[in-house]
Amino acid sequence: MNSVVNATGTIATEDQTGWHTVGEVASLFASRDCMGTVLDGVKVGIFRVDGEFFALDDICTHGAALLSDGFLEGHEVECPLHAGLVDVRTGCALTAPIVRDTRRHQVKVTDGQLLVRLSA
């Protein structure tokens, strides 16, 4: 089992099927609907929209900005660097200057714990 300290200071663990336990949903999203963490060396942004959770690579494909630091409205997150939009459900680039999609990851909640499995 691998582990890493995430952005909230808690330890994220990985099971044998590749699911990382990031932490308790109530703690992770106490103040915002966006949060960032690092899993197996990959920066991951996790977004909560209407009770659903979505995870993407947390680096904007246009610049070196963290999408989890951006403004989330509906299913769109605005990059804090150049204001391009990304759909958090799909990772699709929606507006310039972002023209390349970002990778999305699987998310589930089990017993109040948020889990993420990285895509290949």
Write a short abstract of this structure.
With 120 residues, this protein is mostly beta strands. It contains one helix and eleven strands, in the order E-E-E-H-E-E-E-E-E-E-E-E.
What does this 3D model show about the protein?
The chain is mainly β and 120 residues long. The chain has a single domain, classed as Rieske [2Fe-2S] iron-sulphur domain (Rieske Iron-sulfur Protein), CATH 2.102.10. The chain has one helix at 25-28; strands at 2-5, 11-14, 19-24, 34-39, 42-49, 52-57, 71-73, 76-78, 85-87, 104-110, 113-117. The strands form 2 sheets. It has an 8-stranded antiparallel β-sheet with strand order 1-2-3-11-10-6-5-4. Strand 2 and strand 3 (19-24) form a beta hairpin. The longest helix has 4 residues, at 25-28. The mean pLDDT is 90.
Spans with pLDDT under 50 lasting ≥5 residues? none
**Which class of secondary structure composition applies to the elements?**
mainly beta
Q: How many helices in DSSP terms?
A: 1
Rounded average pLDDT: 90
Radius of gyration: 13 Å
GO molecular function: 2 iron, 2 sulfur cluster binding; dioxygenase activity; metal ion binding
Pfam family, one: Rieske
Protein name: Naphthalene 1,2-dioxygenase system ferredoxin subunit
Organism: Chitinasiproducens palmae
